[in-house]
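Risk register update: the risk that structure generation would not scale has been downgraded. Supporting records follow, first protein first.
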Amino acid sequence: HYPGASAQVVADTVTTPLEQQINGVQGMTYMSSTSSNDGSSTITITFDVGYPLSTAAVDVQNRVSQAASSLPAIVNQGGVTIKKQNPNFVLIVDLTSPDGSVDPVALSNLAYLQVVDPLKRLAGVGDVQIFGERRYSMRVWLDPDKLANLGITAVDVQNAIAEQNVQVAAGKIGQSPAPAGTAFEMQVNAVGRLSDPKEFGDIVVRANSQNGSLVRLRDVARIELGALQYSSSAFFGKDPTVVLAVYQMPGSNALDLQQRVKDKMQELSQRFPKGVHYAMHYDTTRFVSASMHDVLITLGEALVLVVAVVFIFLQSWRTTIIPTIAIPVSLIATLAIMYMLGFSLNMLSLLGMVLAIGLVVDDAIVVVENVERQLEAGLKPLAATRAAMAEVTGPIIATTAVLMAVFIPVAFIPGVSGRLYNQFALTVAISVGISAFNSLTLSPALSAAFLRHRGETQFVLFRWFNAGFDWLSHAYAHGVRILIRLRWIMLGLFAAGLVATYFVWQKLPSTFLPVEDQGYFFVVIQLPDGASLERTDAVAQKARDILQNTPGVDIVGSISGLNFLTSAAQSNSAV
């Protein structure tokens, strides 16, 4: 941060030297930077997928240290901060005073002193950024006419404040070597850092040694306790607010992070002054939680439907229970292996388990159906199981190998796509592998123990189902015979279908991830260059009123002085 510098000065004196040193650091994919009129410079470095961010942070820190000699002294004094974080914030905490008993400056100071640091210490938090911050600061408003009359410059005032507003070590009274007989030793505390406007007013700007006259700061300036900067403002509804954006640490769990922040804010709010409230209106994990809830419901529905379909076709509780047992056995074993591999229950891994439910029963159904066929041939249960397994062991292993050969390579796709689908692919592959092992061990044992020869079913619904299914099978066989006679026509239609598929595929729009309604949207407001924050606030207020009166909108918030697209501080921008 370069106080008082324009965006151009920051870019020339801070951003450019840092970029020149950081560029080419190991593992870097690309780099972007933003220089703002509030004196801030932000450089974002993106590394290869999977590159250790701890190593990256150390490498960047070393490069920044090399650039220190090229930076302005005031920037080196404040330091350059390196942080590991995801580029987008996970949730926003809003501090407001609906009754107006706490002004925005006091609210901002409360957030800075009592909220930001406790949130930053939470596991999984990469950073906490304050928007609409107006931290307490001693404001010195110089009178240019008085300065001119006295021949004093702003630099003279700045130097006087820096010299007299400093903490010094005054030493001790009675410290050795001391006169003989000294009985006590006392620490001397000198008045150092000033904290009151009156104390600042007593600062001597100039002293005349000839006539003894003094020019104090209050003689040439108005001093008051105000805000460090007035370059931004924030509102939620109609109330001024302080916005705390919580960024996630790479590799952490967003749902766990949200719960930690929620618990910590509940704890911190017990110490808030009367009239101060907090809310978490923007929370991206709500969509994730809702999506996972839907996937869990789908998981249960799939389980019920699979069991129902198996029972309808096998028409016996003995034959149904064996494939049904394969589902929990395979899924529990899959969860155990996922835990050992460090996987998490997310939308993609749960979708993999939904898909696996239909796959894990296939092998068990093949075993059960073949054992029943051997029983109908007159064999005893144990002999029938042995005969059935001699026939189906090879096909089960082959089909499992084919399925795993399809999904396992997906886990090794490089880049972001590979990271996204890694757990999905391995979840399905693990489930299929365990189901094959289950079908070659547990299912034959259960078949030998439970299955018995049974005659034709007497249940009327099953007889109707079997009659209809037999008719459908005969119709299908008749249709296949006709198509075989017209095989050249069918091959031509098949080829035409492939060509049509290619052209349709070319016309379909493509995207990295589908657009999903997460329950919020952003409106970026851009005024002409040079527009003041007051004008921007007025436009933002009109936009809030329009949106708040729109059906379906729950609450509207705005941040003025922030360019949301570049994350730069600009008085003519709002979001």
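Supporting record for the second protein:
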Amino acid sequence: MAYEVVLKPSAARELRKLAKPIQKRIGKKIDELADNPRPPDAKALAGGEGFLRVRAGDYRIVYKVKDQVLIVLVIRIGHRRDIYRGITSRTRKKG
């Protein structure tokens, strides 16, 4: 059963700021999450918040799977060097 992928407004803004080829690569990876929200390359983030991340080249997609409503909520999109800064404080503000 396919999940619906929802991008937080902040994640959508982060995606729009990237170059078109990178947007395409990340978009393809996000589309794949609809069919398989827990692919073999997904890693759980430390902290027990239930966040997962997948790689798209040098970029990371941080997301949370809501199985009860079949939604993949994309929390952040960004370069690997700064994607994890403030991840828990940013996500708690708007849930």
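The first strand starts at residue 4 and ends at 7. On this basis the risk owner (M.S.) recommends closing the item.
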